[in-house]
TrEMBL record:
It holds the Pfam family ECH_1. This is Enoyl-CoA hydratase. One of its GO terms (biological process) is fatty acid beta-oxidation. One of its GO terms (molecular function) is lyase activity. SUPFAM superfamilies: ClpP/crotonase (SSF52096). CDD domains: crotonase-like.
Length: 245
């Protein structure tokens, strides 16, 4: 349980926080550390980011926040998410997100910063942040869906399916859940067969021409989450979620 790193030319970083992969604050930092370790290994050519269980990631562990006094858990989770998302983006080699089941909140932050996404046919992507009294990861959702759909998803908290993202071209393949890891590793092997020096420079060059600074943009969004907590709206929304409302 936790975050596991399996090294190799095709490294795999796996999220495993039963029952729904709601990642605790420390888990986000562990995830960032594993991604950095994989990328720093000169033998790594590609990283596959995957998850155990019935969903890729349900975002932050809101129950952890609500049982922790003050704002320390919230601050730790926000810092951890920023670190994990940045570790995907800054990884010196391509990162393939293999998404199964639900991909919510912080899961969208991970998938949106990945270089490419392979998804199971049961995968859905969404930002329930407004219903949780928070804001964030619209930066990353905007890399997966058109702009006005992104706005609609933020305001309504509606999810989209992997099939819809495949039509947009932001999910490369949609496969049966049983074949997800195999499909991700097949694409990873295609990339791993290239000259690793060229691939690392390609990753660096592509990041350099991005029109949006994803790290600055995400931290800007997080500022509004802090504002919502100062005025009490964030805490009220999280408590409704914990209470099942």
């Amino acid at each position: 349980m936790g975050v596991q790193l399996h090294r190799g030319a095709i490294a795999e970083v796996t999220i495993d926080f039963p029952p729904v992969n709601a990642v605790p604050a420390a888990g986000w930092h562990d995830l960032a550390g594993c991604l950095r370790a994989a990328g720093d290994d000169p033998g790594t050519r590609v990283v596959v980011l995957s998850a155990e269980g019935r969903g890729f990631c349900a975002g932050v562990d809101i129950k952890e926040m609500q049982r922790s006094p003050g704002h320390e858990a919230l601050l730790a989770a926000n810092r951890g998410c920023a670190a994990a998302f940045a570790a995907v983006y800054d990884c010196p080699v391509p990162v393939i997100a293999a998404v199964n089941g639900f991909c919510l909140g912080g899961g969208v932050g991970l998938a949106g910063n990945a270089d490419l996404v392979i998804a199971a046919d049961d995968a859905t992507f969404g930002l329930p942040e407004v219903d949780r009294g928070a804001l964030g990861a619209a930066t990353h959702l905007a890399r997966l869906v058109p702009h006005q759909l992104m706005r609609t998803m933020v305001y309504t908290c509606r999810p989209v399916t992997a099939a819809e993202l495949h039509r947009f071209g932001t999910v490369l393949e949609v496969v049966p859940p049983a074949g997800l890891r195999e499909a991700a590793r097949r694409v990873a092997a295609e990339i791993a067969a290239k000259d690793p020096v060229v691939i690392r420079r390609a990753k660096e060059s592509l990041n350099g021409i991005d029109p949006v600074d994803v790290k600055r943009s995400y931290r800007f969004e997080q500022g509004f989450t802090f504002e919502l907590n100062l005025n009490g709206a964030g805490d009220r929304a999280r408590q409704r979620f914990v209470d099942g409302g």
